[in-house]
Each structure stands twice: as structure tokens, then as C-alpha cells.
């Protein structure tokens, strides 16, 4: 029988990927990080048995969690990424010419190590604007002195070291760490996996209470549970659906040409939610 990777998100229901071989496996102080060569999706990274990214579809997640925030902000110069150890979110953020400095706070150096070795096209770790810190992101954002224009929460599922990324206190710290026109985006799980509903509800309730504007938006990532993935966009004032955002997107045609998923139509269309998704956070 051929080698297979299986991730189950409800009893025996889940994802199956054909494998060629194991490329990397390391149990860090926080989690088990593995990289496989697959038969279809290029190299695949898993953490504690959950898919984080593959070479073939990683652009969807990284473009959507980054550019929605970056175009919503009028002039993003300082960006904070919590998590994001594979480097893909930082790569997308750094495509914006206004950016002067990016802090990426990743708790587990092993994730960065694995990405540099087996996903060389994902990260932009040699960019002089990028500063990588190996710290707890919750503790870091709690003590920010110089605020950020954009904060991106690129964490894993709400278990282990990422569990605190779904709590209201954490989002209060983020709010305090943003500039007056600050923007935040975060990954908020699959609307098809009912076990995640309490965490999703918790996040959007907190964002609604803390931020002037908060909205869910969707993207479609083949190797994430059930393929549909939700994200949050919260701001201190700018509506991600405003005409000003349209102008900013249209003023960057060369950047848009370089992308594989995100564009003007996707930006605005991603905020259209099916009724069953709306009910999760109402």
C-alpha cells in the first residue's frame, strides 16, 4: 500500500495526501514539525499532524492574510506578524513599497529552520526589512512600545502554543499595539469544522467589541479542512470595502500581476458570506 498522510478533522473524515518520503522531522519544545515530499502538492509541512502549507497552494493563504490588510491600511510602514514561521506572510507584506520594517515573532525556531531547508521559495528571510524574533507572540504584543500600522495573526489551530491567539485579552493587546488607523487580520479556521465554532465565535465577538470595524472574509485552500477557510479583518476606522481601498488596489497593477490568487474582485468578493457562515459568528 502506498504511503499516505491523513489528517482527520471529524472522526474518520479528513484529508489524504500521497507521500513519497519524509524530508524533515523534529520535536521542538513546543510541537512536532514534519516535512514530506508528496506526489501532487510538492513539499508539505505539518505541525502536530495538521497541515500548515504545501508548495503548490501556499500562495492562497499567504496572499489573502496579507494583502487584505495591506491594502486596507492607507500607508503601512511598520508591520507585525505573530507566527508565520514559514515566511510566506512576510514575503507578501514585503511586496508593498511603503513597508519600512517587519517584525515576525515566531515562538518556534524549528518552523523557520524547516522552511528555509525545504520551502526555499516561500520565505524572504534575507530581506533587510525583516526582523525575525523567536519569542512568545502574546507576551511580545503585550509589551509593544512603538505601535504598528498592521498586525497579522498567522498562527496555527487553537491548540497548544496558539490557543491564546483566540482570546479577547490577546486582541486587546493587539488593539493597543496598533496606530490610530491600524489594521489587523487573523486566520480563524474552517466554517465546515464544527469543533472550531466556539473559537471562531470567541474571536469575532472580541473583535466586534474592541474594534470600530470587524468583518469575516473567506478564501479557498485545497489542503485545509474542507477547503474553505475564514479570516478576520478588524480596523480602527477604515472599511476594507471602501472606495479608498479600491483606489489603492487599482494603483498597484504591477504588484497585482505578480500574485496568483488575490486581486480586486477577490478582495471584495471574499467578504460575501454564505448564510451558514454568518450564523457561526452572529
Please give the structural blueprint.
Layout: E1 4-10, E2 13-27, E3 32-38, E4 43-47, E5 50-54, H1 58-72, E6 78-83, H2 88-93, E7 101-105, H3 109-118, E8 130-133, H4 137-142, E9 148-154, H5 168-176, E10 178-187, H6 197-210, E11 213-220, E12 228-235, H7 243-250, H8 253-257, H9 264-269, H10 275-281
Parallel strand pairs: 6-7, 6-9, 7-8, 9-10
Antiparallel strand pairs: 1-2, 2-3, 3-4, 4-5, 10-12, 11-12
At a glance:
The chain has ten helices and twelve strands.
How do the SSEs run, as a string of H and E? EEEEEHEHEHEHEHEHEEHHHH
Name the CATH class of the largest domain: Alpha Beta
Helix content: 25-40%
Q: Give the structural class.
A: alpha/beta
Q: How many β-strand runs? A: 12
Assign the CATH superfamily of the largest domain. Answer: Vaccinia Virus protein VP39
Reported for the largest beta sheet, the result is: 7 strands, mixed
Dominant shape? globular
* Radius of gyration from CA coordinates: 18 Å
Any idea of the CATH topology of the largest domain? Rossmann fold
The residue ranges in which pLDDT falls below 50 over 5 or more consecutive positions are: none
Measured by DSSP, the beta-strand proportion falls in 25-35%
Biggest sheet, strands in spatial order?
A: 8-7-6-9-10-12-11
How many structural domains can be distinguished in the coordinates?
Answer: 2
Active site: 154 (proton acceptor)
Binding site for spermidine: 62, 86
Domain PABS: 2-236
Function: Catalyzes the irreversible transfer of a propylamine group from the amino donor S-adenosylmethioninamine (decarboxy-AdoMet) to putrescine (1,4-diaminobutane) to yield spermidine.
Amino acid at each position: 500500500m502506498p504511503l499516505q498522510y491523513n489528517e482527520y478533522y471529524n472522526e474518520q473524515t479528513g484529508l489524504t495526501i500521497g507521500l513519497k518520503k519524509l524530508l524533515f522531522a523534529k520535536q521542538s519544545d513546543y510541537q512536532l514539525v514534519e516535512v514530506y515530499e508528496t506526489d501532487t502538492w510538492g513539499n508539505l509541512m505539518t505541525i502536530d499532524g495538521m497541515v500548515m502549507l504545501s508548495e503548490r497552494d501556499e500562495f492562497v493563504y499567504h496572499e489573502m492574510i496579507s494583502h487584505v490588510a495591506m491594502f486596507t491600511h492607507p500607508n503601512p510602514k511598520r508591520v507585525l506578524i505573530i507566527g508565520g514561521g514559514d515566511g510566506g506572510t512576510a514575503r507578501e507584506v514585503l511586496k508593498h513599497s511603503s513597508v519600512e520594517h517587519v517584525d515576525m515573532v515566531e515562538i518556534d525556531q524549528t518552523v523557520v529552520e524547516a522552511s528555509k531547508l525545504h520551502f526555499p521559495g516561500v520565505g524572504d528571510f534575507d530581506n533587510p526589512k525583516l526582523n525575525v524574533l523567536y519569542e512568545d507572540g502574546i507576551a511580545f504584543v503585550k509589551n509593544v512600545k512603538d505601535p504598528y500600522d498592521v498586525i497579522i495573526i498567522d498562527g496555527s489551530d487553537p491548540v497548544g502554543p496558539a490557543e491564546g491567539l483566540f482570546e479577547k485579552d490577546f486582541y486587546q493587546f493587539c488593539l493597543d499595539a496598533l496606530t490610530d488607523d491600524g489594521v489587523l487580520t487573523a486566520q480563524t479556521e474552517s466554517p465546515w469544522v464544527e469543533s472550531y465554532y466556539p473559537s471562531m465565535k470567541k474571536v469575532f465577538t472580541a473583535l466586534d467589541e474592541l474594534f470600530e470595524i470587524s468583518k469575516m472574509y473567506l478564501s479557498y485552500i485545497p489542503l485545509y479542512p474542507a477547503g474553505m477557510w475564514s479570516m478576520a479583518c478588524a480596523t480602527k476606522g477604515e472599511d476594507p470595502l471602501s472606495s479608498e481601498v479600491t483606489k489603492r488596489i487599482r494603483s498597484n497593477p504591477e504588484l497585482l500581476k505578480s500574485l496568483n490568487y488575490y486581486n480586486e474582485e477577490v478582495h471584495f468578493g471574499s467578504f460575501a458570506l454564505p448564510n451558514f457562515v454568518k450564523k457561526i459568528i452572529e
